[in-house]
Amino acid sequence: MTDSANTPAASATAPAGNPQRKKALITIASVVVLAGLGWAAYDAFVASHYENTDNAYVQGNIIQITPQVSGNVMTIMADDTDFVKAGQPLVQFDPADAKLALDQAEANLAQTVRQVRTLYANNSALSAQVAQRTADVARSQTDIARAQSEVERAADDLRRRQTLSGNGAVSKEELSHAQTQLANAKAGLSTVQASVASAQAGVAAAQEQLASNQAMTEGTSVEQHPNVLAAAARVREAYLASQRAAVVAPVDGYVAKRTVQLGQRIAAGTPMMSIIPLNQVWVDANFKEVQLRNIRIGQPVKLTADLYGKKMEYTGKVEGLGVGTGAAFALLPAQNATGNWIKVVQRVPVRIALDAKQLVDNPLRVGLSMDATIDVTQQDGKMLADAPRAASLATLTAPTDKGADLEVQRVIAANLGGRAVVARSDVSKASKAPKAVEAPAALAAVSVPAQVQ
Questions:
Q1: What does 91-156 look like in DSSP terms, one character per residue?
Q2: Residue 427: exposed, middle, or buried by beta-carbon count in 10 A (0-12, 13-18, 19+)?
Q3: How many CA atoms lie less than 13 Å away from 220 in the CB half-sphere?
Q4: Between these two residues, 452 and 344, which has the higher pLDDT value?
Q5: Residue 244, class by beta-carbon neighbours within 10 Å (0-12 exposed, 13-18 middle, 19+ buried)?
Q6: pLDDT at 100
Q7: How far from each other are the two terminal CA atoms of the chain, in whole angstroms?
Q8: How far apart are CA 281 and CA 286, in angstroms?
Q9: Is the pLDDT at 350 greater than 90, yes or no?
Q10: What long-range pairs does 174-182 form, CB within 8 A, spacing at least 24?
Q11: The 253-256 sheet, strands edge to edge
Q12: pLDDT of residue 432
């Protein structure tokens, strides 16, 4: 009886616990469903508008400093981590070789000017020679007329004597003397005719020589003569080489990778150091190919650097998308047509321009890691640039050759004769014009031996 009495009670107690468990399960399921719906809503309305990657690094222009001329290093005025201004001297070469080349070029220019002056002076001398030869021809022609008269007179005398010789009025000796006079007159005529031909040939030769000399001087002055211009160009070349003995910084930036050493013989084009303008850095963010669908040029970007943490957030914009994956431009590109193949998701670099003011307040270094998030809400931009860049990326100021021009003018004026001479001090002033940046104290310098006077 007891067992039968307890059985209904147990059966009545069991159903009482099932609603609580069911309610808990329903609650858990509801939370999971709501979380899923919330995540779906977040992904649809928020996360889908952003593309993020931590495969991003700071990049910048690494400007190699290479000399335009060869020489021995005499002074080094910048080292790693130094900040330099554009135009500031970095390395000074031994100027002795450049000065010697400049002196030789100036001497060659002076000699050329004097030689060209001789050409112009020869025009007058050759013109006088032509006039003299012409006068000789005129005198020879006068001599021909006189010699022809002598021949005619001798011929008349001989005819008269030949007529009288038949009557015995003229002796044979007198007849023979008349024949000799005629022969002498004809010989004199031949001599004069030969001298006329020679004089005419002399006139022709003098005229040819004059024309040849005039062809070298016609239509130009001594200063603009081709020979003088060629020699002046060599002076300018030597002058520029002497100025290039001092290697200057092309831009503002920080020195890195200095390899030049004191006393080293440097050939033209050898890298000596690098300058990195940290105010012009950018970020290359390597996004997966599936993330590029909505990325467009001009979209805003938020970036954080491991250097400063998440407290410092940089703002930027998409400046351009790479035209190939990193693997396509690798030193050893993948050979996917050989052997077993495993698909690997490729990444394409996206260039992001940074805010210049933020770079001044919180400078970055080349190679630092970044985290980039692009807002892809706006889709009206282009995936690839379709027009050339409006302005140049960077421009170097060409060195002025005013000093070289003054040096050329001074040498030409000094050798023209009877002209004003440009003082060498004026040339020195032009070549030593005030510079925007003064040279700092040298890290190291080689003493130059004094020249023997």
A1: EEE--HHHHHHHHHHHHHHHHHHHHHHHHHHHHHHHHHHHHHHHHHHHHHHHHHHHHHHHHHHHHH
A2: buried
A3: 16
A4: 344
A5: middle
A6: 93
A7: 142
A8: 16
A9: yes
A10: 178/154, 181/154, 181/157, 182/151, 182/154, 182/155, 182/157, 182/158
A11: 63-65, 273-276, 253-256, 83-84
A12: 47
- Partner residues linked to 317 by β-bridges: 300, 353
pLDDT for the residue 222: 81
Sequence-distant (6+) residues with CB within 8 A of 187 are: none
The CA distances from residue 154 to 56, 162, 186, in Å, are: 119, 12, 9
Rounded Cα distance between 15 and 6, Å, is 15
User: Strand, coil or helix: what is 396?
Assistant: coil
What proportions of the chain, in percent to the nearest 5, are helix, strand and coil?
Answer: 45, 20, 35
Q: Which of 350, 371, 366 is nearest to 298 (CA)?
A: 350
d(CA 108, CA 254): 43
> Among candidates 249, 272, 270, 240, which has minimal Cα distance to 98?
240
- What pLDDT is recorded for position 393? 72
Residue for token digits 């025009």?
Answer: 123
SS3 344: coil
Cross-strand bridge partners of residue 28: none
**Alpha-carbon span 122 to 69, nearest angstrom:** 41
Angle between helices 402-416 and 424-431 (to 10 degrees): 170
pLDDT at residue 436, rounded to an integer: 42
Containing H/E element for 453?
none
**Model pTM?**
0.69
Alpha-carbon distance values, 87 to 212, 221, 236, 239 (Å): 51, 39, 21, 18
Contacts (Cβ under 8 Å, ≥6 apart) of 1: none
C-alpha distances in Å from residue 101, one per residue of 160, 165, 269, 424, 441: 86, 91, 20, 17, 28
Stated as kind and residue range, the H or E segment containing 11 is helix 2-45
pLDDT in tens, 152-187: 776 766 666 666 666 666 566 666 776 677 677 677
pLDDT above 70 as % of the chain: 69
On the 0-12 / 13-18 / 19+ scale of CB atoms within 10 A, 195 is middle
What backbone phi and psi angles, to 5 degrees, belong to 387?
-145, 150
Q: What distance in Å separates the CA atoms of residue 415 and residue 107, rounded to the nearest whole number?
A: 10
